Structures are given as C-alpha cells and as structure tokens.
Amino acid sequence: MVAMVLQSRQDSAQFAEGHIDNAIKAKAEGGYTSTRPRYTRNMLKEFHTGFSDLTEAEKNIFEAFVEDHGTFLIFEWIHPTTAIQYSVRFDNVPQIKYIGRGTFRFWSSTGIVLKEV
Questions:
Q1: Residue 42 has what pLDDT?
Q2: Burial (Cβ within 10 Å: 0-12, 13-18, ≥19) of residue 110
Q3: What's phi and psi for 20, nearest 5 deg?
Q4: Residue 37: its pLDDT value, please?
Q5: CA atoms within 13 Å, Cβ hemisphere of 12
Q6: Residue 3, CB half-sphere, CA atoms under 13 Å: how many?
Q7: What single string gives the DSSP state of each residue in 6-44?
Q8: What does the alpha-carbon distance between residue 73 and residue 61 come to, in Å, rounded to a whole number?
Q9: Per-residue pLDDT tens for 9-66?
Q10: How far apart are CA 49 and CA 56, in angstroms?
C-alpha cells in the first residue's frame, strides 16, 4: 500500500483527530430513541490535517497524489505525534490555495479530512 506523500511537511496547527460515530438511531413514537452499533468493530478514527507553505514542486507532488487516490483508494498515513500507521482515505478532495506574495510562491492545503478504513 502506498504511503501519503509529504507527511513530514504537515502543519501541526492544522492537526485534529476524533472518532466516527458508528451508532444507528431510530426514534419511536413514544419520544424515546433506540440505538445500536452499526458494526462490532471499534469506532473508527477521523483525522484533520493540512499543509502550509508548500513550494511549487511540493504542490505538484501532492496534487499528483490526490489525483491518483481521489476519495476511493486507501493509503497509509502515519500519525504525527504517536507514529502509529493508519490505513485511511480522503473524505473529500483536498483543495490547494495559492498564498504567495510577490516573488514568494507558496501554496497551502487546509481542511484535509482522512478517515480510517
């Protein structure tokens, strides 16, 4: 399985993590709600990350990775603080924004959401 590119360039200010709710809920006429887990597997994780100040070459590498994997192919991602490896996929297609000024040509991609599979 392919590893995510430019992992060392992730912006720590963009990092967050949480769990994906796996409950199925059904409301009854009496006003109560019954719930059950969707599956017996533990709750999956969701990670938010991003990149700041990417050079033109780094932007092209990341763009090619996104185009190859889209939101459908699974890849390996290493947690930046625990170094645990997760199998993830993009939840949405990351957007890349130009943030350069004058002769400084930099790009950023924030709001990247990765879901564990």
A1: 86
A2: middle
A3: -95, 125
A4: 86
A5: 3
A6: 8
A7: TGGGB-GGG-EEEE---EEEEE-TTS-EEEEESSSSPPP
A8: 17
A9: 999 999 999 999 888 999 998 889 999 888 788 889 999 999 999 999 999 999 999 9
A10: 19
- HSE of 20, CA atoms in CB hemisphere, 13 A: 17
Cα separation, 77 vs 53, in Å, equals 20
Q: With b meaning 16 or more CB within 10 Å and e meaning fewer, what string describes 20-40?
A: eeeeeeeeeeeeeeeeeeeee
pLDDT tens sequence across 55-100? 999 999 999 999 999 999 999 999 999 999 999 999 999 999 999 8
| 92: its two tokens | 């949405």
83: β partners: none
The secondary structure element, H or E, covering residue 47 is strand 45-54
d(CA 7, CA 81): 12
